[in-house]
Design goal:
By secondary structure, the protein is an alpha+beta fold. The chain contains 7 helices and 34 strands. The radius of gyration is 58 Å and the shape is rod-shaped.
């Protein structure tokens, strides 16, 4: 073996001896000297104590829900080793006894379970936490309904009924105050008959966001959803009774003429019209319209209950009126140009009694009436003819005085021949050609 080989062999021997000495010294220091060390424990969950006080006072913890703390401990290696091998040895607590609604600053206390020796807690971070406390309240809230979907054409919803329309909610007051609506959403798409459904109860805030984690006595609600068939039918007026002999009511009709009704399909399909409540003609006298109610069959309602129905009609009140017609308004009707007509009765006027609607007779005077006698088809001779008046729509002549007039009719040609033979001219009061028609 040369010198180099011997030197390398001695070098490894020295290294081995050094390693053995180092291990011996380390074991001595660790086992005999036992130096002091620090260990950091992070994210230790804080346990709330005094919860019985919270429950007794009707309070609730709003925040923080799962607070954590960082802890540094100090001790010898052997002592720290014993702690690290036991789970949940370090305990952090916050005592809530005496807290009030609102923000409360609570100290954190940290302890080591079954501690022996000189292990110390040298730092807690944070040392305090802010705990938000709220009072627990209970309120009864009304449940509203918002149906989802659309019914087929010709159908409509009735008044949806929630069987138990109140829900009792127990929660922190701040959570209750956020509730602006309690709603259920029954689906009505393609439904044609009344149905029952059980729907979950949803709590909404002012932004229509759902509020969760609330305690309530019920989580779902039973809902009755009535669905009705729609149909438009005519209205028939039901009028009974009689009125005076000189009165008449005509053109009776209901406005509007039709009504949209609703009910079950079976009921609605059997109805072709709706009658009004019975009306007596005496109640209609003196007016032009009359409010009327409809006689709806059982199980049938109006689709729009706000519609008002009126009975419209024409009321006619016939009266008599005595009118004096002046002589100037008399004329002979249907004169023959070959004949002469001589009035053989003296009169200044004719008194007539007319019968008709009061609205027609109210403003009628003698100047508005023409009286006449008709000579149609009459030849020469003396006649006693009836007076008559020109036709007035809606008015009839009941009496006149005088009732008739004496008229002498002569042939013009014959009268002229006779006069020529006698050499005389005709005398008398001739009123021919007075046709004012």
């Amino acid at each position: 073996m040369d010198l180099r080989e011997r030197l390398n062999k001695n070098k490894w021997s020295v290294k081995l001896v050094s390693l053995i000495m180092a291990i011996f010294l380390w074991s001595y220091v660790m086992g005999v000297v036992n130096p002091v060390r620090h260990i950091d424990y992070r994210g230790i969950e804080i346990q709330f104590t005094g919860v019985d006080y919270i429950n007794r006072e009707g309070l609730s913890i709003l925040s923080p829900q799962s607070p954590k703390v960082n802890v540094r401990i100090e001790g010898t290696r052997s002592e720290l080793s014993n702690i690290s091998t036991r789970p949940n040895t370090i305990v952090a607590e916050a005592n809530l006894s005496g807290v009030r609604p609102g923000e409360n600053v609570v100290n954190i206390s940290v302890s080591i379970k079954e501690q022996t020796g000189g292990v110390r807690i040298i730092n807690v971070e944070p040392s305090q936490i802010v705990v938000n406390i709220d009072e627990i309240v209970t309120e009864n809230l009304e449940i509203s309904v918002e149906p989802l979907g659309n019914l087929p054409e010709g159908y409509t919803l009735g008044n949806i009924r929630v069987i138990d329309n109140y829900v009792r909610v127990t929660a922190p007051k701040t959570a209750i105050d956020q509730i602006v609506e309690v709603v259920v959403y029954p689906v009505i798409s393609d439904k044609t008959e009344t149905f029952m459904i059980n729907s979950p109860i949803i709590f909404l805030d002012k932004n229509q966001n759902e509020i969760q984690n609330l305690s309530s006595n019920i989580e779902t609600a039973d809902i009755e959803v009535p669905i009705y068939r729609l149909k438009s039918v005519p209205i028939r007026p039901l009028v009974t009774g009689t009125i005076g002999q000189d009165e008449k009511i005509t053109n009776i009709r209901v406005v509007p003429e039709n009504v949209v009704i609703r009910g079950t399909t079976k009921t609605i399909d059997s109805i072709s019209y709706i009658e009004t409540e019975e009306l007596n003609l005496q109640d209609l006298v003196g007016a032009e319209t009359h409010e009327v109610d409809l006689k709806l069959p059982e199980g049938v309602t109006m689709h729009d209950p706000g519609v008002d129905f009126k009975l419209e009609y024409e009321y006619i009140n016939n009266v008599q009126k005595n009118i004096t017609v002046p002589r100037e308004n008399f004329y002979i009707k249907n004169e023959n140009s070959d004949l002469d007509y001589t009035i053989n009765t003296e009169f200044d006027s004719v008194n007539v009694i007319l019968y008709g609607e009061s609205s027609l007779l109210d403003g009628l005077t003698g100047e508005d009436i023409k009286i006449f006698t008709d000579v149609k088809g009459l030849s020469s001779g003396e006649y006693l003819l009836e007076f008559n008046i020109d036709s007035i729509e809606g008015v009839t002549l009941r009496e006149k005085e005088p009732t008739s007039i004496s008229i002498i009719i002569t042939n013009k040609a014959e009268a002229e021949v006779e006069n020529n033979e006698n050499g005389t001219t005709p005398e008398g009061d001739s009123s021919t050609n007075e046709d004012e028609n």
